[in-house]
Amino acid sequence: MHLGPLLLTALLVLPLAAHAGQAGDLVAAAAAAGRPPECSARSGRAIARGPTVWERARAPELPRYCDLLARGQAQLGGDAEAARESARLADQLLPGHAAPQVLLARAALALGSPEDAARAFERARSVDPRSVEDPQTMHDLARSLARTGKRGEAIAIYRALVPRIDLLGTADQRALVLLEAAHLSMATAGAASVADASARPPAGAHGEAAARGALDEAIAYLREARLRAQTQLARDVTLSLALALDRGGDKAQADAALEGEAATLEAPRGRAAEDRSAGAAARERAADDLASAAARLRTVEYLAVPEDRLALEALALERTMTAAAIARWEAYLSGAGGQGPWAPAARARLDALRRGGGGGHRPARAATRAAARGPQERSAAPPPRPNPGGAR
């Protein structure tokens, strides 16, 4: 069963809007959520005061235990190995609690061991299912599940996390959650499409509906990310949205997203572009910018399917460096992508590039003109002509 696009949009928008006027409460809730119950105040006292004298008498190790956990949380961002050691010491002081296991899991993930993280998270959840409910922990849990092949469980965690992303510390973290959720949903859509192709009706029809729903879910996540304030991941969001739209058969919207990205890159240079020589230099710089974006895609970690990196690089290069884009699409189709459910969409884009560009350098002149025009002129411009080489 999947979330329809309207329901998903409501889940994305309404909970966040409800929290808009409660920023202080959200920050306080986030700070309190990561504190284990054994270290929290039992009555109405401020959380910062910690365990009572009676709790300390019953468990003299408790203050040291809570200090180790607090230190480990602080160490996670800079020294994950030290955080793991703090978690181990805390677990030795007071065995049987969930909090040290949560800290062990998060440290293991930061150290590049998602399998160890998944096992520690499982131990924590078996002791206390609510021990993973703060947003930072939920994010790490979802990532560990996704990286160990448990996509269904990971998607369930992301669906619970997305309405709470304003509790995360930075805009980049929020954008990353939406990107990861979108690519995971897109991978699920691809898997459902493969299952649909080998199934007989009515099972095949159910698989097709599941694939469509998962792809709609990915598009909803990416549109939400695009509506938010610009972050370092803004181009990644735009390229991922174009990829999802293209795979959903909406090539016109995918191309519009890419044209908008090219115009954004060139907009600050729009005045200089009125001069022919300056315009040529601006286009060259824009091409370099997009080429750099394509190169940076080799370092991202939000992809659920590794070969999608080639597809995103191809989209980043299509409007400025046709030959390089063609090479990326060919590499995608000659590898695992060519055997996957999105091969027809990729082949259609490759064929369109071959027909329209011929493999040379093709500057984004249309995007430059659009950036130089004012908003009213752009809104009055006629819609783009249909491209016969569109996706399925």
UniProtKB/TrEMBL annotation:
<feature type="compositionally biased region" description="Low complexity">
    <location>
        <begin position="365"/>
        <end position="374"/>
    </location>
</feature>
<keyword id="KW-0732">Signal</keyword>
<feature type="compositionally biased region" description="Pro residues">
    <location>
        <begin position="381"/>
        <end position="392"/>
    </location>
</feature>
<dbReference type="InterPro" id="IPR011990">
    <property type="entry name" value="TPR-like_helical_dom_sf"/>
</dbReference>
<protein>
    <submittedName>
        <fullName>Tetratricopeptide repeat protein</fullName>
    </submittedName>
</protein>
<feature type="region of interest" description="Disordered">
    <location>
        <begin position="353"/>
        <end position="392"/>
    </location>
</feature>
<feature type="signal peptide">
    <location>
        <begin position="1"/>
        <end position="20"/>
    </location>
</feature>
